[in-house]
Amino acid sequence: MRILLTNDDGVDSPGLRLLAAALRNAGHRVFALAPDINRSGTSHSISFLSGPCKLTKVEDDTWSSGGTPADCVIFALLGGLPELCILQGNAPDLILSGINCGANLGTDIIYSGTAAAARQGSFFNIPSIALSLVESGENWHWEPVISFIVEKLDDMKGFWKKGTFINVNFPNSGQGPLDIVRSFPSQKNYNDRIETFVAPDGELYCFARIGETVYNRQPSSDWDAIMKNNAALSVVISQPVSLGEE
Question: What is the pTM of this model?
Fold first, then answer.
């Protein structure tokens, strides 16, 4: 397949680099276009309305962008990468966003640049999948997850339908996921708070204090699937639908 690969962690992220290499070794043509720095938490923001964005060729079939993850998909498909320009009939077969360093479970998909890139791909009616590795301890077990993705790529793509994108989270274990489980986004409470500080000049500053995230482990939720060492796959509606439509 011809695949556009992006992320929100930046072009040098191990999740993107290792996945690109594995997909290429499996015979896929991979075009990687990702932000030049970490753009986590940017959601679906776009930056090109404020002016031009620079694309820099990093190596063969790999570029960095001064924009957001959503920008990267737009740039690639609307002319920035002629090989993928949908206006010239060169649409990729698949868009992958990730592998993100950290979970995108539950309401994370609202804030996530990783999810937004997949959502943007779905706007062009191209199968699009967001991929995230759940943080657990100090180590990132990339190899078993990447092997699983390459093996199950067609299966994950098969869940896609028009007006949706696919969000997949993987457990961070040395054994890799047991299976792919269809799930729904879990209920999640971040428990964050804001502390304020009045500086000597009278200006007010706000500091975020990150709380302990609490998941509601409902049966068949994405968190429930992860806790059972499965890959949690959710089909997320990406485009407005009329009442009564699926």
Answer: 0.94
Amino acid (one-letter) located at 215: Y
Report yes or no: 67 and 47 within 8 Å, Cβ to Cβ.
yes
Q: Which H or E run includes 118?
A: helix 113-123
Reference 119, options 32, 127, 84; nearest CA is: 127
Q: At what angle do helices 142-157 and 14-25 cross, to 10 degrees?
A: 60
The model's pLDDT over 24-82, given as tens digits with 9 standing for 90+, comes to: 999 999 999 999 999 999 999 999 888 999 999 999 999 999 999 999 999 999 999 99
Question: In the structure encoding, which two tokens stand for residue 86, read together?
Answer: 């949908």
Residue 184 is given by DSSP the state: B
Rg of the chain over Cα atoms, rounded to whole angstroms, equals 18
Query: Tens digits of per-residue pLDDT, 138-160?
Result: 899 999 999 999 999 999 999 99
Comparing CA positions, the residue from 73, 89, 1, 82 lying closest to residue 33 is: 73
Helix (H, G, I), strand (E, B) or coil at 66: coil
